[in-house]
Each structure stands twice: as structure tokens, then as C-alpha cells.
Amino acid sequence: MDRILVVLPNWFGETLFATPFLRELRRQRPDAWVATLGWPQCREVLLHNPHVQERLDYDERGAHRGLLAKWRLIEALRWRRFDTAFILRRSLSRSLLLVLARIPARVGFANPKSGWLLTQAVPSPAAPSSGRRPEPGRGTPAHKAVIYLRLLDAVGLSGGDAGGFDYTVAEVERQAARVLLSDVTAGGEPLVILHPGANWAHKRWAPERFAALGDRLAAERGARIAITGGPGDRALAEDIQRRMSQPVSVLAGHTGLRELAACLEQAQLVVANDTGVLHIAAALGRPLLALYGPTSPLLTGPLGHAERTVVLHHPDCCPEVPCYRPGPAGPAHPGMDAITVDEAYAAAVQLLDQHG
After folding, report:
1. How far apart are CA 72 and CA 70, in angstroms?
2. What does the pLDDT look like over 56-71, one tens digit per residue?
3. Cα–Cα distance between 311 and 306 in angstroms, integer?
4. In 73-183, which ranges are E strands?
5. What is the rounded end-to-end Cα distance, in angstroms, of the chain?
6. CB pairs under 8 A, 24+ apart, for 27-30?
7. Strands of 105-109's sheet in order across
8. What is the 3-state secondary structure (H, E, C) of the chain?
9. What pLDDT band is residue 201 in, cutting at 50, 70 and 90?
């Protein structure tokens, strides 16, 4: 294996789950050319990652939607003469790209949809019916980062231990974050970042609870509060701001992913739902309060720096984990509703006292 292509999962949080795989691949094949193929947001996550030489985009809903654009991508892959491809997700379209690009060794997870296009199909782990209550005989479910590493075992390398995630902040991004946060951090008080967004509405803790937590941390601990998010989270962040009686800075919609991550690096505490930003905070080693409801932290939780992380999760409140359906009354989810402001505040104070 001298020229290796790694096909990434779609979500940028799961791209972080792939960084232990990339780290182990680089450690065991130090002279190989390693490239990745994924959505543009995946490239942003891996920018400055020392284990990857090239980051290629595959935007099948945009730039590569048409047949001609796909064919140009196939030709670009052929030109690079990859000898091995690892595909970390089950995808017929991506597996077919690898075949048409004439990559001789294609390693991925066995599945009826696209497994027949692989030259080496690794048995897929059975999905548990519940993150905390696996069926008898099925054992403890493995984290996705650990599952990805099994592809290395299949080709004679060592999957090893997942460890933590990798994310590299550049100095220019760090400087931009200092400017964005200059008013918030001027007094030297601890900076607490609230990240209330998530890709599913029922993975979000209620805005009134984020507001109550922010108010308590500001009033009782002297914290300065900032709310982060993408452009789509701005209305949510402003809703939380209106509910708060203490001063709060809304950064949602004012940063790209790279600047947002650099802001996280400056925080003494990050409070977030199960979303990619949570995993960036974990990769940066920030004190982290993670709020889980319809998903399982055993499968998709933060890794690394366990002493700096508190995960709040009440799986017994949920009909199933992971749960893809919101509650009957709307976007609320029983697992998220079960997390109280009091327990979140107690966990936040513990993290600030120990690591803030």
C-alpha cells in the first residue's frame, strides 16, 4: 500500500471519528501517500491534519451531481493511481466510483447494498437495539471510531486503540478567534461556550434550559457566556439570548467552522448537544459537558481526555437508542427532557473547578 485513498463518512462529526484511523494508518505506513475523499465539510475538518497529504471533495448534491462532473472526478482518481481504497461508509455510489477509478484493492464493510463491489469485505458490526441495553449475547456496542479501525486489521495492519480525535487549529485562526472574543474575555473571567444546535431537532436541549444554565454560570460563577453555531442556528441562539437576564454574546452565524473551532479552543468550558462541534471540543481537550438523549455516547460519544468530559445521558427515558423519532408532542425528546438544569449546572461547576 503506497498510494491510499480513504473515503470518509458524510457528517463532519464522523469525520473526526475517522481521525484515529488516519493516525494509525500514517503511523504504520509512514511513507505512503494518503488522500481522503468526502464532502467539502469533511475537508474543512481535516485541514492541517498532519496524517493526510491531499483532501479531495465529492459533493454529489452540488459540484459532482451530474454524470460529466462524476466522470471528471473518476478521471482525477485514476490519474492519482491509488492502489488501495478504504471506504468507511456503506455507499453504492462511492464504491462504484472506486471501481470505475480502477483502484485494485477496495476495503470496506460487508453489506448487501455495496459490499459486492469490494475486494475485501469486513463483517459489519451488528447495530445494538439500545445504546445502554444491548440484546443478550451481543455485548457492549463499539464506538464508531473503533469500528473504523477494524478495516486496518483486515489488511494486516494493527487497528490499535482509538485514543482521541485529531483537530489542528492554525495560528491565523487562533488570532481571528481572539478578535471575535476580545469583548467577552477582556475581564479575564472564565469563558463558557454554549452550542445549542444539532442536526436533529430532538437532539437539542431546550433553549430555556440553556438560558437558565447560562444565567446561573454567569451569576454564581462569574462566567462570560458566548453562544456558537452556524447560520442556521442564529435564530435559536437569539432565542436563548432573549431568555437570559445575564449578558451573553451571540457568535452563531458570525464564524465559519474553522473560526468556531478556534473559539472553542479559548473556552474554559463547552456545553453542547451531540453534534460535530462537541467532538471538535473533545479533540481540542476542552472541559466538555456533553448532552445526549436520542443517541448513545457508547456509539458516538466524545473520546480522549475522559477526565475533562462529563456526559449526561438518561437512556431509560427513551423508547430506543438511537431514536430517530421525536416525541409525540413535537421536537422534544424524553431523553433530552430528562436532563435538568440542576444536574447540568453541577457538572459544569465540577468541570470549571477541576479544569477551568
Report:
1. 5
2. 999 888 787 889 998 9
3. 10
4. 84-87, 105-109, 120-122
5. 44
6. 28/152, 28/157, 28/158, 29/1, 29/4, 29/157
7. 54-57, 33-38, 3-7, 84-87, 105-109, 120-122
8. CCEEEEECCCCHHHHHHCHHHHHHHHHHCCCCEEEEEECHHHHHHHCCCCCCCEEEECCCCCCCCCHHHHHHHHHHHHHHCCCEEEECCCCHHHHHHHHHCCCCEEEEECCCCCHHHCCEEECCCCCCCCCCCCCCCCCCCCCHHHHHHHHHHHCCCCCCCCCCCCCCCCHHHHHHHHHHCHHHHCCCCCEEEEECCCCCHHHCCCHHHHHHHHHHHHHHHCCEEEECCCHHHHHHHHHHHHHCCCCEEECCCCCCHHHHHHHHHCCCEEEEECCHHHHHHHHCCCCEEEEECCCCHHHHCCCCCHHHEEEEECHHHCCCCCCCCCCCCCCCCHHHHCCCHHHHHHHHHHHHHHHC
9. confident
Measured CA to CA, the distance from residue 156 to residue 161 in angstroms comes to 16
* Residues 240 and 200: beta-carbon distance below 8 Å: no
d(CA 214, CA 246): 8
Neighbours of 117 (CB within 10 A): 18
To which residue does cell 458490526 refer? Answer: 125
Question: Strands, DSSP E only, in 112-175?
Answer: 120-122
pTM: 0.90
By the 10 Å C-beta count (0-12 exposed, 13-18 middle, 19+ buried), 124 is classed as middle
User: What is the 8-class DSSP label of residue 316?
Assistant: G
CA dihedral 259, 18, 142, 339 (to 10 degrees): 10
Domains and CATH numbers, the chain: 3-154 (3.40.50.2000), 171-355 (3.40.50.2000)
Distance CA 18, CA 88 (A): 8
Q: What is the pLDDT of residues 128-139, one digit of tens each?
A: 443 444 433 344
CB 222 within 8 A of CB 185: no
